[in-house]
Each structure stands twice: as C-alpha cells, then as structure tokens.
Amino acid sequence: MSAYRTSLFSWRYATSVSAVSSAAPLPVPGPRGIPPLFARLVDDAALFPPGNAPMPDAVRTHLSGRVGGNAGVMGLFLCQASRLPELITELVKAKPAEPVELSLVIDTGLGGVPKALSIVESRAELLVLRMVEMPAPADVDDVWLERVNEFVPEDVIRVVEPRRGGQEWLDGIRRVVGHGSWPKIRCGGLSREAFPSVDEVADFLAIVAGVTSFKATAGLHNAVRHTDHETGFEHHGFLNLLVATGRVLSGGDVRAALGETDGAALAEEIKGFSDDAARAVRASFGSYGSCSLSEPVEDLEGLGLL
Prior knowledge:
alpha/beta, about 15% strand, TIM Barrel, 12 helices, disordered N terminus
C-alpha cells in the first residue's frame, strides 16, 4: 500500500470511528493471534439456509467453536426470534460456561420484538444480546425506524435490511443510517435474483463505508468471488468485500475489487493494510453471517492470511 493510501486510511479511520454507533465496539484480536481484520468477522448462521442445521447440532458446534483454534474468527450466534424457546432448551442441556453472544433475527414482525427481548433478558445466564436484525418493510420510513429505536435498547446493535432494488433501496439505506442502525446487504441466496450485481454492492458501499458500520449476509462462505459449478451463480467473496471497503476509504477502484477473482492478488493487497487501515475497514464492515465457519477459515489459511 502506498504511503499516500496509508495516510489517507489513517485520516479516514480517525474521522469515521466517531461516526460509528457507540454500540459497535471495534473488533479485538482473537486468541492465537487472529489478525484484527478477521477477528469476530464471521457470525454463526448455522440455523439458516443453505445449512439449516438442527438446533442441537448448531448449539454444539457453536460452543465447541468458541474454544477452538479459530475461535477468534467467530462472532455472534444468529437465531430467529421464533426459535428462542428451542435455543434455550438446548443451552439448558449444554450448560455453557459463559453466556452465548446472540444476534436475534426478528422473523415475527416488529411487534414481536419486546416479547423476544424479554425472553432473552430472563435467561441472562445463557444468553447475552449483542445485536437485533430485521428486514425493513417495502416502504421503510422514519416512523418505522423510530419504533425500532424505541424497542431495541441503546446498548444493542440494530441491523436493518432494506429491500434491494433501484433508487428506493438506496434511499432506504440512507434512512437506516440516519436513524443510527446498521444497514445490511444480502449478497446471495437460493435464486439468481438474490445475488446483487457488482454495481449494486458498490453503490451500497459508497453510502455506508466510512459513515457507519454495516453487516452482510448470505452467499459469502468463500473468500474470493467465484462461479458455483452446480448452480451457475456468481458468488461475491468476503475478501473482495473487505478490499472494496478499504478502497472506498482510500479512493481506489471499488468495482474492480468486487469483481476480482484472483485470490492471491486480493491477499497481497490485504497484507499491505496498515493496522489503522485494517481497523478502519472493520469499523465499516462489522461482520457477515455464514452457515459455515470452516469454509472461510480454510480459504484464509489457503491464502496465507491466518
């Protein structure tokens, strides 16, 4: 990385951190020397498609992952509000030494948030709530976003996913940011239409990077952009997204980073990040959900980044 880009990163880092919600502490280095750029990057979405793990398996794998060699890469455990009783039942059986850090995914509508939060708070020995995620209505507006703020405590990160498509989507992202929530971008799914284009991801990053934190989800099991041979779907890579976030902050070519399929080239750019650059990137790119922890870790190890 050039001296110019490094100094610009440092300046952007200093100015962007103050804009990030106080509920969003910067990731810290994990055990066994996990680099700050990857610390707590991958939230555990084992319960969600395409993994769809049974609750007992998901809980067992998460708890064992917390003490494994790559525990520092693993972030929060994602669970739907509708499945909280099921999660609590399994945790009672497992008796974790420390409460599970939870991201609660609201699938019961905004009106179901207070009850779900009450359930979590009543089992503080098993769960600690760090994040609440929810899809936005098609006409996400200031009134709805204010209700989100009223329902979710200030010390919990709020993540809102506007429906992708056209100018209305971009306007919705701006409103989410304006109300102090993290916007979320869905990078894949079970249909071709679920995968945003390079231009759409670049437009999203142009709004949020350096202004607030964001979360990504779906389709990012692997580090590098690639075509799935079974489905033919073009998958985004989480390493592409990290590099693209860095380029937004430093004035580089964002679309080229998102479209890059050369893992070695992306890894080389990542290795050139200064400590301030890495922290600036993660101050924007908060985390992403994946139903697999092993695949991201294997990719990073294969590229010499872990």
